[in-house]
Amino acid sequence: MEQHRTRPAQDGQQGQRGTRRGSAPLPPQARGGTRDAQARGTQARGAGPRRPPAAVRRPPPPVVRAVRRLPNPRLTGLGVGLFCTALMLALGGLDALLFGASPTVYGVLFLPVCVLTAAWVRKADLVTAVIVVPIAFVLGLVLVADSGDGTGDRLMGLFTALATEAGWLYGGTLLAGVIVTVRKVRLMRRRVARNRPPA
Fold this sequence. Notes:
By secondary structure, this protein is mainly α. The protein contains 8 helices and no strands. It has helices spanning 7-21, 28-47, 62-69, 77-98, 103-120, 126-141, 151-164, 166-195. α4 (77-98) packs parallel to α6 (126-141) and α5 packs parallel to α8 (166-195). Helix content is 72%, strand content 0%. The chain has a domain at 73-195.
């Protein structure tokens, strides 16, 4: 009598079903490696490109701190002209009263006035500082120069003082010009940086 073989067929059907359902489960080591790789990928996506650490700024020197604490007004062209002229007239009068009308003292006091004039003028009137400074020097020098009885003597004393103290006049004007030029260059760089399209 012939016996039907049913078990191998069942085994084949079970193998086909197991193949359809999916492959054999992965070992725990492989599962852990896959999860770690996925977690690393998620962290890398969330982190994005690493930015370089910000540079540590050093505190400015004491001289710069002292300058920053000073008042920093912004005067118009007319305002800076009145300021410089009034200050030089006042310094000329003090020089005549306290130091016997010393041209050297007057020239030394003229330099900080030039610095303040060039630093306090507003950005739109930077050129005005260079024009105002020599005019104020001449007006204040009238009180310091040797004066006689007549108008001719006064003019002669003024021209003599201008000739002998021309170094202070040129030095103060040059100092104001340098400060104005530096401010103008910084202003132009800021404008270029603002108009530059973002990368």
